[in-house]
Structures are given as C-alpha cells and as structure tokens.
Specification:
The protein is of the alpha+beta class. The protein is built from 12 helices and 36 strands. The protein has 4 domains: 306 residues, Pnp Oxidase, Chain A; 102 residues, Elongation Factor Tu (Ef-tu), domain 3 (Beta Barrel), CATH 2.40.30; 137 residues, 3-Layer(aba) Sandwich (Rossmann fold); 89 residues, Beta-grasp domain (Ubiquitin-like (UB roll), Roll). Helices cover 17% and strands 35% of the residues. Strands 9, 10, 11, 12, 13, 14, 15 and 16 form an 8-stranded antiparallel β-sheet that branches. Strands 2-1-5-6-7-4-3 form a 7-stranded antiparallel β-sheet, with helices on one face. It has a 6-stranded antiparallel β-sheet with strand order 21-20-23-18-19-22, covered by helices on one side. β28, α11 and β29 form a beta-alpha-beta unit. α1 packs across α5. The longest helix is centred in the C-terminal third of the chain and has 18 residues. The protein is elongated.
C-alpha cells in the first residue's frame, strides 16, 4: 500500500517561493497526493525500460553537478518500492565518481525523449557494488512533458568511439559558448543541505527546454528564462536555500558533455523578462568551474520536433528585437503577404510577415492599422487580427464590402480582395485597441459573433487554446457564431480543430439564419435563425459568465438587451464597436457622464508641417474634416476616436472632444477625428497649432 507522509513534501525554500507566488496552499494539498515516499508500480516499470537516467548531487565542497548514467535497458531495477538499483558507472571525468559512496544524496530524472514522459526521484545511496549502486527512495513523483523536445535515440558501439578527452575549465571557450547558445535542452542540478531529516532535503536534477537561443551567454555568465512549470519550485526552492547550480549540456549529435557548476541569482523583476515570450522570471548562472567531456557518450539523438510548449516561448535575439520594436511602436513598418486564404464566399485572410523588424505581440481582440496606395492615394483602414499572439505572422481576415444603390463598395476591402497577392508589401502600425481578452481568468466566457465579427473571437479562442497548452489550465469558452448560410460561414474547420484540441473546454455552436437544403443540422449548424434568449439558456449551463460581442450594430444591441433581460450585469458584457455601432448600455452602477469641454466658436488652426493656417468655425466639423477640406491628407482609421491612427502632436492651444475617445491620448496629443478647437476664457479667436 502506498503511504503519504504527514510532514510537508516541500522544504522551506520551496514553501517560501510557493507562498510568494500565491500557490502555497494549493501545492501543499496537491503535493501530499502525488509526492510519495516510495515508487509506484508504473514508475518502477518506466525506469526499467530506460537506457539512460540523469542524476544530480553535491560534492564535498558544496558544488552541485548534473550527470548522465546509461546502459542497456534494464540497468535500472526495483524489486522493492522503496529501493532502486542502477547498474552503471559515471562517465570519464564526471565529478559524480568521487561521490559514488553510501550516504550520498542523489536527485534522479528518468526521461524518455521519444514520448516526452518523465519522472523524478530523490534518493540516497545505501550501497555500492561492482556493478553499480543501490538506492533508498526518499521521494518520487511524476512530471509533465512541457518543453521536452521529441528526440529519437541511436546507440553506438562503445569500442567504436575515440578515446575520451576531458578538459577542466573555469571559463567558456568559443566552442563551449556555441554549444550552449545552440542548445534547446539542458539539465540543472541543485540541492538543499540534508540537515533537517526531512525527505524533501537533498539533491535534485531537472530538465529545462526552449528554442535554440533561449540561453544568453555574457562572458562566463548565463541568463536563463524560467517558464511556467508545475509550481513545485524544486529547483528554484533549492536556489533559495543554496544559491548554486550544476548545469549539464548534452551534445546530442556528437556525444560530448559540458558540465558546469557555479553560483546562481534569481531575477524576480527584471525588465528583460517583459520582452521574452513565456518567461515568468529570469535567473543567472555564474560559472565557477567545470569539465568539457568529449567522446564519452555512445548515444546519439535525432531531433524530431519541438514540444508544443517550446514553440510558445521566445529567444534572446527575439526579445532584443521586440524591445527595439516597442520603442518604434508608432511607426509605419513593412509587412509582406506570405499567404492568402479564402475563408468563405466573402472573407479572405492575409498572412503578413514583418520585414526587417520584430513583429510586436498583441492582446487577442486588438486590431491592425493598414496603409496602402489605392487609386493613387494612401488609404488607411483598421482590421481586427484573427491570429493569436505568438503566431509567426499577423493574420487579418477581410470581408469584401460590395456596393449597392445607396452605398459605395468598400475601397480598401475590394482593393485587398482584388489586388493583394503573395509577395506584395504593405504598411502597418503596431496592434492596438481596448477590446481584449484574458485567457487566465477563471470565470467561463461566452463569445457571440455575427459576420466578420467572428475575427476577434477566433483570435481569443486560439489564444485560449495556446495558453491552456502552456499553463495546463484552460479557460472554458462557449462560442456562438452567426452567419446567413453555409457559404458565409467562415473558419468552420479551424473552429472545429480548436474545439477538438481543447478536450471539451472550448465549445462551438453555429447559428445560420438561412441554411441551405444541403446543410445538415447538428453538423453544419446547430440552430436555425438568429441567436435568441431561448438558445442562450439552452446552450449555457447555469453559471456566471463574461460575454463578448462583436458584429453589426443591430446584432450587438439585440444581444446586449437579451443578456440584460436574462440578468447579466452590464460589467460582464464586453463589445467591439466602431463609430455608429457603439452600444447603448444600461449601467448597473452610477457612472461618470462624459461632459465635453466647450468648443470654440471660431479659431485659427495652423498645420505646421504643411505651413497652412486657416480659420475654423463651428460648421467646419472635426479637425480631421477640416484638414481634408483644405486639401490635406492626415492618417486616420475609424473616425470615431477608437483606433488612434489620427493621433498627432499638439504644439499650441487646446481641443475639445465632442464624444469620449477610447484610444489613449496624452495632453500634448490630439485625435483629429473627434476633436475641435476648445473655447478658452478671455479669448475671442482661439489659436491651435498641429503637426502631422
């Protein structure tokens, strides 16, 4: 029978870090269930199948080291749940050889790179034989497969290898640096002095993975991101108690080892972590000494593919480029069209690749401001991103706006559909917008869309799936998408794929208002007609939801009113709305009413760059209208104060916003599309100076 110790499975350092990061109570409950003082049967079977295992220990001077032990499968055996035998010896030049004696505490990591399975073990040597060592089990627990790259193993004949070449080092050569900088995997040993008598004391060895370039080398110092893990904080908890580490880099193709030991410092609030995708924090390793062990492994590995979690993380070159790009956020940058995909009869997606600069990250639901030459003139429009943050390309999905007797066709949408092709280049500003989504929120969410309003919902759904993979905690989503018929139902297969990968955490429903005869209920759509209160009540279990709306103005207003009638609080309803599509809300709480500053009756407006000075009066409209009426072509997007594309510096004077803008604007800036000259007490004719 498996027993669980009554003492905490975590030592002081681990508990302190768990407390700091707000997971202490949760991890104590979880740890008592999964951290055992003996080997479960499945762990014993797993270890027996392995051809290698990693070990961590601390030498007599208190320096930790990470090592690899190997032999034919079966070299690890356990005839007793509290005991383990390893028939192997340390490789040439391994510091573990000096500690190969009874009483040494070892951390062990069994890992199968083909399946990404791994288990951890803390033990102590109880005996040494001619064949290897016998161990007593202190703690055993499983680990998730995050950041483990899929590799296939190839064993060589030991006698075919060149003679081992062992070099002691206290600085990193160009060769060692190259190995580290090109690595996607390393192993880290750490320890807490076994001075309390608890099973949580002793040594540990852990796996770390990332894309090549995730470790930065500065002289003899390594800067390493710490990604989201299982919240045990075994390694960092050991660092807290004993700020030292042993690092093992395996040359998977050449059979060499680079083993290092040194001091560690944790960087909890480094600004550099802000630009490194996936980094929760950073830590530094300062080399003290180590060994370059060449020709010591008769094992080779072929890289098959990277872990899905690894693909969601960054590299130091990417972080540096992103930091530089953030400083140029307001500039127009070039993007090349990489792919063009028809999503429905009237929606086409364009995949845009940054040219010569780092693509900026964004929040799901935000939009991209584009500029293209249409009919010989620069035209600016905004399109919501349908890609997820972290994707290699931006993706915009554009509905072609056809003309009618009372409405001209959409200039930009028709230009993009008719003319933009793979290889073409256009300009874009960095993503922006206040309609965004938090995938880490525990409250379930409902995403309601109609027509092209599906694009931010797709971004939110894909981001939620990615974050669920990365964090192993997925926010529950229910998506209800409305289209006229099957031909206008965009992204159908993509939503199906998201739903399938989410293991039931993301549900998707289609409402078709005019399904064709060939459309199959339950497969091609789930509801005939518009979204109703009855549909919402039938689809949604009783719970407290956040609701996100995007689509035509009438659709959003109807859904908003329905949700309010069902008792949903105004603060739980979020909407993407531009200009006349803005919702009329009924607030649950007293709200501050926007009162515009008094507008001037007359003003003199100077456009500094154009050297134009003109008289403005009340009937001339917004400053954007006024500029266009005088032959100027300032940039703009939404014309409703939401996208910020028309923002320009204010050099003198003051302005009044006749409607409250949602785009951020500083005191020395102006949103031309919704601003007019402000009245100034004591002045008859107001003067205003703008630069663009």
């Amino acid at each position: 029978m498996t027993t669980i110790s009554t003492e905490s499975p975590f030592h002081r350092g681990e508990q302190i870090l768990q407390q700091r990061l707000g997971v202490r109570d949760k991890m104590e409950r979880f740890g008592r269930q999964v951290i055992r003082d003996q080997l479960p049967a499945q762990h014993r079977d797993f270890y027996a199948e392995l051809p290698f295992i990693f070990a961590g220990h601390a030498d007599n001077e208190g320096w930790p080291w990470a090592s690899i032990l190997f032999n034919a499968p079966g070299f690890i055996a356990s005839n007793d749940a509290r005991k383990l035998q390893i028939k192997a010896a340390p490789v040439a030049g391994d510091p573990l050889a000096a500690a190969w004696q009874a009483g040494t505490h070892l951390g062990l990591l069994g890992i199968e790179l083909t399946t990404r399975r791994r288990n951890r073990l803390a033990a102590h040597i109880t005996g040494v034989t001619n064949e290897g060592i016998e161990l007593g089990v202190d703690q055993a627990f499983g680990n998730c497969p995050q950041y483990i790259q899929h590799r296939e193993l190839l064993a060589l004949e030991p006698q075919a290898l060149p003679a081992p070449d062992i070099e002691g080092i206290n600085s990193l050569s160009a060769e060692a640096r190259a190995l580290i900088e090109n690595s996607d995997t390393f192993f880290v040993a750490s320890y807490k002095e076994a001075d309390s008598g608890q099973s949580s004391d002793g040594a540990d060895v852990s796996h770390r993975g990332g894309k090549p370039g995730f470790i930065r080398v500065d002289g003899n110092t390594l800067i390493i991101p710490d990604y989201l893990g299982n919240n045990h904080f075994n390694t960092l908890g050991n660092f807290h108690e004993t700020p030292k580490a042993g690092l093992l880099f395996v040359d998977f193709e050449g059979g060499h080892l680079l083993t290092l030991t040194g001091r560690v410092e944790l960087l909890w609030d480094s600004d550099e972590a802000q630009h490194f995708a996936g980094a929760e924090r950073l830590w530094k390793f300062h080399l003290d000494h180590g060994f370059y062990q060449k020709n010591v492994l008769p094992l080779r590995w072929h890289l098959h593919d990277y872990s899905p979690n690894t693909l969601l993380t960054g590299t130091w070159p990417e972080a540096k480029a992103l930091e530089q790009a953030e400083q140029q956020r307001e500039q127009w940058r070039l993007y090349k069209v990489q792919r063009v995909v028809d999503e429905s009869c009237d929606i086409r997606s364009f995949y845009l690749q940054a040219q010569g600069h780092q693509q900026l990250t964004f929040e799901p639901g935000q939009f991209l401001t584009l500029r293209a030459m249409v009919e010989g003139k620069p035209l600016i429009r905004t399109y919501t991103l349908s890609s997820a943050p972290g994707d290699e390309c931006y993706r915009i999905s554009v509905k072609r706006e056809v003309g009618s007797s009372d409405r001209p066709e959409g200039l930009m949408s028709n230009y993009l559909h008719r003319h933009l092709a793979v290889g073409d280049v256009l300009e874009a500003k960095s993503p922006r917008g206040g309609f965004s989504f938090d995938a880490s929120e525990s409250r379930p969410a409902v995403l309601l869309s109609a027509g092209i309003g599906i694009t931010p919902m797709l971004s939110m759904a894909r981001h939620t799936l990615n974050e669920g993979i990365r964090t192993r905690s997925m926010r529950q989503l229910t998506l209800i998408n409305t289209a006229r018929d099957q031909s206008q139902r965009g992204f159908f297969a993509e939503f199906d794929d998201i739903t399938e990968q989410s293991n039931g955490q993301i549900r998707n429903y289609w409402a078709l208002t005019q399904p064709g005869k060939a459309s199959r209920p339950g497969r091609d759509y789930h509801h005939r007609g518009r979204v109703t209160e009855e549909l919402l009540q039938a689809v949604l279990p009783l719970d407290d939801y956040d609701f996100y709306l995007c689509g035509p103005g009438a659709f959003m207003q109807t859904l908003y009113d329905q949700l309010r009638a069902l008792g949903v609080q105004d603060g739980r309803i979020f909407a993407e709305a531009f200009g006349p599509a803005a919702l009329v809300r009924a607030s649950d709480q007293p709200s501050t009413v926007f009162v515009p500053q008094a507008a001037a009756g007359e003003a003199v407006v100077e456009f500094v760059d154009a050297k134009v000075e003109q008289a403005w009066s009340t009937g001339d409209g917004s400053l954007l209208d006024f500029a266009e009426a005088h032959g100027l072509n300032p940039e703009f997007g939404c014309r409703s104060g939401q996208c910020g594309a028309c923002k320009v510096p204010l050099l003198a004077g003051s302005v009044s916003y006749q409607s409250e803008p949602s785009a951020a604007v500083a005191d020395n800036e102006v949103l031309l599309c919704c601003a007019v000259p402000a009245a100034v007490a004591g002045e008859g004719v107001v003067k205003l100076a703008l630069q663009f």
